[in-house]
Fold these 2 entries.
Entry 1:
Amino acid sequence: MRRECYNTASMSTLFFNLSIIFYGIGLAGSAITFFTKGKRTFQAALAAVIVGFVVHTGFLIYRGIEKAHFPMTDMKESLAFFAWTVSLCFFVSYLRYRIRALGLFLLPLVAALMLGTIFIQSSPIPDILKSFWIYFHVTFLILAYGMFFVTFIAGLLYLFQERELKSKKPKTFYYRLPSLSLLDDLFYKFLIVGFGSMTLGILAGVIWAKQDWAKGWESDAKVIATMVTWAIYLVLIYLRTTAGWRGKRAAIVNVAGFLSVLFTLVSANFLGGVHKF
Amino acid sequence: MDLVLVGVSHKTAPVEVRERIAFDDRVLPEALGMMLGQLSCKEAFILSTCNRVELIVRPQDGCLNPQPLKDFLHNYHGLEPPCLEPFIYSYTKQDTVKHVFRVASSLDSMVIGESQILGQIKKAYSVANKQGTVGLLINNLMHRAFHVAKRVRSETRVSSSAVSVSYVAVELARKILGELQERSILLIGAGKMGELAAKNLIRCGISQVFVTNRTPEKAAEMATRFNGTPIPFEELHSQLVRTDIAIVSTGAREYVLSKQQMQKVVRERRYRPLFLIDISVPRNVEPAVNDIEEIFLYDIDDMKSVIEANIGDRKKEAEAAEQIIEEELEQYARRAASRNSGALIGALRQRIEAICLEELEKNRNTLEPGEYERMERMLQITAHRLAHPFIMQIKHPESSLERHYQNVELIKRLFDLDDKK
């Protein structure tokens, strides 16, 4: 009887719940840090998020063992994996740029995604998804979306900081955000790496489709939405590198890009097509 | 913690009063000696800056009346008491400690968070130390105050934002451009204010300096002073395209840089942010230039408004600093309580032993030989055990200091003790 308490299913649920709790603490700590500007609360928040992330990773591993496949084949799992990549991006960006305010802006999405997955029923895996290519296809795409979220937030923070600097009346963000040049660097690096990752994900998808899928996948709703997203980011990179667009100029394209990411993520569930799982 | 403080500061007195009672460096050692002699106190300390004069003493007899100290301040400066009375504040015991902590942490300063006061206190302390007028209590207080000031500085942002024009320029440059190494600056014109701001920026790491002026000789002269490169005035436009920061301070009566011109510059810069400082009066840059994307134009009033905001920010941070002061005060009191307990514990031990041995002494004659020594030993051990719980109470302050003091008072009353020797 006792052994059953430790089976993988209950372990993954336990890990899942724990990670939500720790992310919650981390988010609360980040919010307090933002308002009080204290260093200590942020260290506590960071520790909580690290624990949350480790437990989250544990959840993904157990889930994978339990289902005997990489855990990103249905909506529930891909949202949980998306949350994981955003969390990962938070660490990477914090380690590189030390922007404490990022916690308050990145973690809400992590928390929301994790909470969201509770309400989604898990579905059995269709045979078609039992392929080697899915690992590359989905992993790279979702990693890219996580990075695009950082790009989106960095662009937003740039706008806030720019506005306060232009207004000559420093208020909230002036005292909490780093320099414009650092925010721009964060924006640009995540944009480039995210774009590379997305391209790889799409290539993997194309190879996979050529091998295993019937004709007509090119006109699938999700494929089209993905290509639109990819094109928007291509435009953004082009404008940034050749014309130097940043701040207010780049904002619209940046926002459009991320809205397109969100739409792409759920598009198949509204519009149907081969990606509906 | 038998300390008395008497002081006059910018908060209580105008500068006419403060300058009248200042102790300058030459008279300070002598004044400290006089204080020690005239007030018959164990320790004496004087802090005298342009914003405050404060005297601290540790009285001989534990008498905490500030009046003699106030009289000393009057007499020393040849003033008739009580003419300073309306300007003087005084603190005793714990309040002295709190005040010193706050002053050292620059929470009581005219510009909250300014860094000079700590150095001034350190200097005053070293003078008193050299004169040998400070002892255990004030030494302790000062070292603790330095520690608190350090904590406040590192744990709050109370002294981190800029509150002078030339430092605001540096702060803004960092907000826009990040690290200033590898950045370049262009000085247009030769105004004094512009030079000052440029000096600060260069000190903070800017590596390339370019100077331009309508008079080429002036540009060359200034360039040598800043170790920079003079640029012909005709090349202003192309230099504006390259530079990261430009300081404009010419004596011109009209705009040197117009919006139209800067719009062209920003396109050629491919929207790389440009920090434009206009320190000239009348202004030399068309104000509408600020509307151009990625150009951040600040004139002298704009920088003043940043200073105002920064001072507001410091005040908010001061609340967090007050929290630290409270924490440290509590700790200080706790340590002082357990440090002061030595004399009291000795007295308590003696008292209990005396009570225990009293009856034995009375009946000494009735005892067999050898029995007296045996019983004395037994009663001494009993006295020791009896005293133990009381000593523990005195030695280890419990969670609430208030309660602790009450307990100590109670023990003193019960055994009729006095720890003041």
Note: Chain A has two domains: 1-125, 127-277.
Entry 2:
Amino acid sequence: MHAAGRRAAVLLAVLVVVAALPAVVSSRYVLSTLVFTALHALAALGLSLVMGFAGQVSLGQAAFFAIGAYVSGVLTASHGWNGWAALAVAAGAGAATAAAVGGPIFRLSGPLLAMATLGFGIIVYYVLVNWTGVTGGPSGLGGIPPLAVGSVRLDSDAAMVRLAWGALLLALWLAGNVVDSRVGRALRAVAASEPAAEAAGIDAARMKLGVFAAAGGLTALAGGLYAHYVTFINPSPFGFAYSVELVVMVVLGGVTRLWGAVLGAAAVVALVEVLRAALPALTASHGAAEYEIVVFGAILMAFVIFLPGGLGAARSRA
Amino acid sequence: MLDGVPQYLASGLVVGGIYALIGLGFVVVFSVTRIVNFAQGEFVMLGALLTVTLQARRLGAPAAFVLAVAAVAAVGAVLERLAVRPLRGAPGLTVLILTIGAAIAIRGAGLVVWGTDPFAVAAFSDGPPLRVGGAVVARQGLWVLGVAGAVFAGLWWFFTRTYAGAAVRACAINPRAARLMGIRVDRVFLLAFALSGALGATAGAVVAPITYATYDMGLMLGLKGFVAAVLGGLVSPPGAIAGGFLLGVVEALAAGLVSSAYKDAVAFVVLIALCLAQATGRLPWRVPATE
């Protein structure tokens, strides 16, 4: 009980700080970076549940982000839906897709599962590019309306900072409660030893599938918020590179900590901003390439070899 | 519509030879170390682009090919020595993320060195395509099959007729027993990674004249090589070869008869189907990675 109370207090404090921030900071660049940090963290939170509690890695998590973005985007831009209803359907679609895909592929584990999720991500990407009648194909989907409360459109960076961080902190609070509940204990048992957990009467496969579905829903929610924030989406940000980016966030932040996703997302967003400025000068050509991957691979290797607990562990060790 | 079938079969077999070579790389590493090396596809990319660079240095095609393969074998060995060995005994997820990291690091290195533009690569020999039955086969296609065949024969000889090959097989069956018999397991691990590097690079060098060579070619080829290996049970070299050809043919038929837009999805569908078949006990063999 004590831990739960402390967590709620910390989250509330962060919420107050973030809500007050746009009043103090007026730089659009800083505010939009904050929005993206929260959206990435929300997406990474889902993956960190999969990695920390199901002990599996998904290399197709970007697909759920894309599903969220496109479901919410298409419903509002092409069918005139209310933004919040579309967002809810988008999150539901992410969870339902994860449950449907997870049914067969979560019978696998380890590398086979990772490859299967990688293949799933690639297929979703192909569908986005080829299903031009609905998704707009490579040229994208525009005119997605911002979310609105009554007649107030949440299209300012300040409003989106509050909304995205509010969603992230709510998700962290919910995830924290689940982790401390009976379900959370069952999940930790599965993560520690699947046979032992099964011997204790826990349906490990169902637990893992549930985590995967929850992760799909969270990541899709982040994607939906993203679509309403940027108002124009095309397939290119939802490729393999983004799936890798999410894995890097989780590993950087530490797989077993919920806050790790936030820490990792912030670190990756900062790193990407620095690299965008520095790397094109170093590489041979200036095409639109995934320059981040140049260092992401090295970071992943360095962290699993030298700092498997992530940045959070480094702090608590120091 | 069915007129195209001989052509699809021929193209499928050529591509299948590539998948088989890549799949063999997965099998060699997995059967010895129980690691699925996600960097396998990046070995293919390195092999293709190194061949391009070496040929540009006015090296003859054979010399460029041999040097590229040797260099990537060295990359495989370095990866084992510097990254995989320190994590011996670590949890599966950790090693998995390590090889994913290695794959991305190699891809990033490829981006820095070669940029994003695709390279056209000269075929091994000039001349018009050949007619075989009802199909037209580019000369490079024959080179693919010829090189793949030579590699299969060479591997068979290595595994069944040499001491080192027997040591690798012993480690694959039981590393602890192999160690007790005086086999240096560390060296076999190193050898397995070097061999997988060489196999990937060979695939890359022979496929480059057909597909172009780019820094990001490794992802798709790696995934398909993996499906080929899984089709064959992941620990069986002949299985991976058969799996490679099967996947190549199925993919070419699907692209030709159904839709070429989703050609790359075929491998994934095959993988999911395999998983389902195994989960319901309809598969006559087991894929050990799922145990």
Note: Chain B has a mean pLDDT of 88.
